[in-house]
Amino acid sequence: MAKSVVIVGTQWGDEGKGKIVDLLAHGVDAVVRFQGGHNAGHTLVIDGHKTVLHVIPSGVLTPRAKCLVGNGVVVSPQSLLKEISGLEAQGVDVRSRLGISPACPVILRYHEALDAAREYKRGKGAIGTTGRGIGPAYEDKIVRHGVRLADLITEQRLRDKLEPLLDYYNFLLAHYYAQDSLDVASVVDEALAFGEALSPMLTDVTGQLHDMRDRGDKILYEGAQGALLDIDHGTYPFVTSSNTTVGGVMTGTGMAPDDIDYVLGITKAYATRVGGGPFPTELHDANGDAMAERGHEFGSTTGRPRRCGWLDAVALRRVVRSNGITGLCLTKLDVLDTFSEVKLCVEYAGVDEFPVGAEEWNRVTPVYESHPGWSGSTQGITDRTDLPEAARSYLDRIEALVGVPIDILSTGPERDANIVFRDPFGA
Ligand code: GDP
Ligand code: IMO
Ligand code: MG
Predict the structure, then answer these.
(1) Is the CB of residue 220 below 6 angstroms from any atom belonging to ligand 1?
(2) Which helix (H) or strand (E) holds 348?
(3) Of 14, 29, 259, 334, which is the active-site residue?
(4) Model pTM?
């Protein structure tokens, strides 16, 4: 029986990870974020009520589960405190269940200013970031001068680190980017107040997870973004600044490879991407419009329209192999219910090897396989054999192309709109 399950997005994010984390969180002891930050927008729909989570793990609406934020997550205290109070206003107890690693890099106002300034400077080549300061916060970490949550609780320690940093970035903002600089004293005061508010929730997340694993507790790791947005393995430089792939669990929590029993890859039945960058199977036609409309494809964090296209089985096969994916959860199949034809990209023409970056990705011409649509509702079906035959063969073909089974099928945004063929926790 699997005790530790990792959820990873297998495309460019927004595959429906939040919904599936919420589904699987029942009976789980901890749900853990390990990378990314509040660039994530994970949607949960329970009895018609929609909740969008950004940094708080998607187990928060399941009463028993502890919610842990590992050291790999970049934390904006301002956004996190707002998220906590938003949930509390709905009567959800957050503070007693939330544990955050003191080693998390902190996102402050200057990171957002830098994110915006860099995007502006990139002009037509802009990445289309969420503007949340994610890249600049990870930069600070990798350069080794970043402020971590632990630094916010001791005034002198914070001043010693933050004041010279703000001096440097203010110079950059004013003299290189020609933008307004920030008032050092107010940023420091704000940071100290954030530290005070968050300090009761700071805890040794790694140690807690070690103890839980040793006790045989159930742990669910919640990835953010998707494998094709991974800083190393994605469509660089049109990616996010973290390892969104399975290795992020180890570096972002301090767990070991054999602490993982099952990896669930979340895959939309088609593909979407928000922001700039290569997207070989993107559609600019009525089918793409229908996906956007039927799938309500607007960003959960920024509200931007998502670009839509056919499912890319070549990229998916690569992602399955690189992440050790045990099984897939295919989401939003219902969005394709009205389509008369459904296509799958089964080969890349124009490149000899799997693309390594945007330049190579832009040379890809997708080779498609056409499948008949099922023109019938897949919503509410609870047995694979009850699915329309054409939908079943679409699923069979995806499994054959990528080499792993579809263990869960999601057929609607609601928590209970699923067919679970095999429970990742083995229950
Ligand atoms: P995440 O970032 O991977 O958690 O995904 P998002 O929440 O950003 O986007 C997924 C969207 O699709 C949300 O609005 C979900 O409510 C919705 N959704 C999830 N699964 C399904 C499904 O099977 N069918 C439909 N129609 N919508 C779904
Ligand atoms: P979830 O967890 C979809 C995209 C941005 C941009 C790129 C870099 O909800 O799936 P960043 O702000 O991270 O520096 O932006 O990554 N991006 C996402 N796209 N879903 C997300 O998260 C995303 N998080 C970042 O649109 O293209
Ligand atoms: Mg999302």
Answers:
(1) no
(2) strand 341-349
(3) 14
(4) 0.98
Number of Cβ atoms within 10 Å of the Cβ of 293: 11
Known active-site residue 14? yes
Catalytic position from the list 38, 42, 54, 233: 42
**Residues 286-308: pLDDT tens digits?**
999 999 999 999 887 788 899 99
pLDDT digits (tens, 9 = 90+) for 131-185: 999 999 999 999 999 999 999 999 999 999 999 999 999 999 999 999 999 999 9
Task: Provide the residue type at 349 as one letter.
Answer: A
Residue 392 sits at φ, ψ, to 5 deg, of: -60, -40
Mutation pick for ligand 1 pocket among 8, 21, 46, 331 (CB with most ligand atoms within 8 Å) = 331
pLDDT at 194: 98
Q: Are 56 and 94 in contact (CB under 8 A)?
A: yes
Atom of ligand 1 nearest to the CA of 226: 3
Question: Residue 202 gets which letter from DSSP?
Answer: B
Rounded CA-CA distance 50/52 in Å is: 7
The CATH code for residues 109-198 is 1.10.300.10
Nearest CA to ligand 1 atom 6: 14
Contacts of 143 (CB under 8 A, 6+ apart): none
98-100 and 30-33 strand pairing: unpaired
Domain ranges of the chain: 1-100+204-427, 109-198
What is the CATH number assigned to the segment(s) 1-100+204-427? 3.40.440.10
Query: At 179, which amino acid appears?
Result: Q
